[in-house]
Amino acid sequence: MYQSGLRRALYRVIRSDAPLDEKRTPVKRNAPPRSRRSRVAISALFFLLGTGGGSWAVRIPDIQHHLGLSTGALGVALLAVAVGSLLGMPIAGALGARLDAAGLAAGCAFAFAVVLALPQLAPSYAGLCGVLLLLGAASGGLGVMINAQAVLLERRLSRPMMSSFHGVLSLGALGGALSSIVIAGAGIPPGVHLPALTGASLALAILAAPHLVHAVPVHGTPTLGRPSRHVLALGMLAFAALLCEGAVADWSAVFLREEAGAGPVLSGVGYVAFAGAMAAGRLAGDRLAFALGPRRLVVGAGACATIGAIAVLVPSMPIALGGFALLGTGLSVVFPNALAGAARRSGGQPEAAIAAVSTFGYAGFLLGPPLIGALAEANGLRTSLLILPACATVILLCARRLDRSLLATDATPRPRPRATLAAKRDLTRKSSSSGFSGEPWLPAPQPAV
Predict the structure, then answer these.
(1) What pTM did the predictor assign?
(2) For 302-340, how does the pLDDT look when each residue is reduced to its tens digit (9 = 90+)?
(3) What are φ and ψ of residue 26, in 5° steps?
């Protein structure tokens, strides 16, 4: 009976996503109602950010036509979104160390919702650039704060959630884009569509705000400063992952048309396979992170991405499409786990670490497409896409900086008592006949925030 009880306990540790209490015994899986409402509220803000971004992307040609902009002028205007995001992320991280996390997240959501309606109202090119700078800053700040909310809820429940939240973001972007295509096809102008989207986004933010996770600022916490070596390594992880994502988003259709001979319809299937696999991988990422641990998961994801990136370069349409799907599957869990890994080592205020890693990642997303374009001009597009397996190799190298155990949140590892290690060895030895192979023991969770 004693041996059977040990086997059941080990099974629950390895195969369940139930949190563990201070004595490392299984507890009930059901989260309290307050935490369930917080999870729905945070998911709503992730969906809001994705829907707003997807809807705006579809209406860009209408804004261009409204102001009579050339392609070059539009490119410069869109650069203002990137500059605003790179400014908004560290500012949000600094403010997060001084203000309540829930209030700041709600404020960023309100600002993002309001700014969505302004591009169509811009009276001039200069006004449009100013509005897009604000849009980028609001979206960057909101991205930092909702990721901080996800980390705070993970700490409260001692359960991985970051990947599923990013899955909701992907679904929101897809839904926003598809709905905007339908709305534009119905002849509804941006002057009606975008203000209506603002109203719906404000309503969603108002409903979500009371249920966000509060965090009392810690006085003396550093705001802006040099990132630690751990954060720099995870920033490189995010940089490599989002560089690949930006490259696939901008060059996959061109590559399939020019190098694989795809027609106008099939040329877009590569990105559809990539995005669909990424959304599915993120929705399954939390359970995989609990079962394998962040380090093993991201190492496996990097290997999958490497295989997919190599398959993309094969001069065969079916193999290339499969390569895009494998690449999306591999990259899906990298950025969420990089954010979560940085936040776990940040102490009580995760915003600054999240802002640093997000800034690295977004810089890679912006750098990837023009870098591949410059390389393609000199060496050809297929040769320039060798940067994809190179970035996947960087992911494999930097994944070693992630925690082995999912719930290790302290910056300094805590020594384990000899009794705990002896109990683990004894339990592994006694359960060897049941097929389990000594998975790493999860540490006790931190107190709820």
Answers:
(1) 0.71
(2) 999 999 999 998 888 889 889 999 999 999 999 888 888
(3) -65, 145
Q: Can you read off the two tokens belonging to residue 135? A: 């849009």
The two three-digit tokens of residue 345, written as one number: 């080592």
The domains of the chain, with CATH numbers, are 33-208 (1.20.1250.20), 227-408 (1.20.1250.20)
Instruction: Give the integer Cα–Cα distance in Å for 253 and 26.
Output: 49
Q: pLDDT tens-digit profile of 151-180?
A: 888 888 878 788 889 889 888 888 888 888
From CA 294, how far away is CA 288, in angstroms rounded? 8
Q: Which residue has the higher pLDDT, 235 or 261?
A: 235
| Amino acid symbol at 137 | A
Pull the structure tokens for residue 49.
């950010």
Structural element, H or E, at residue 350: none
130: region left, alpha or beta (phi > 0 left; psi from -120 to 50 alpha): alpha
Q: Which pair of tokens denotes residue 184? A: 């534009």
For residues 253 and 264, give the distance between their C-alpha atoms in angstroms, rounded to a whole number: 9
Residue with tokens 């309001």: 114
Q: 102 burial class (0-12, 13-18, 19+ CB within 10 angstroms)?
A: buried
Question: What's the rounded Cα separation, in Å, for the pair 210 and 316?
Answer: 52
Dihedral angle sign, alpha carbons of residues 95, 97, 101, 103: negative
| Sign of the CA dihedral running 334, 340, 346, 352 | positive
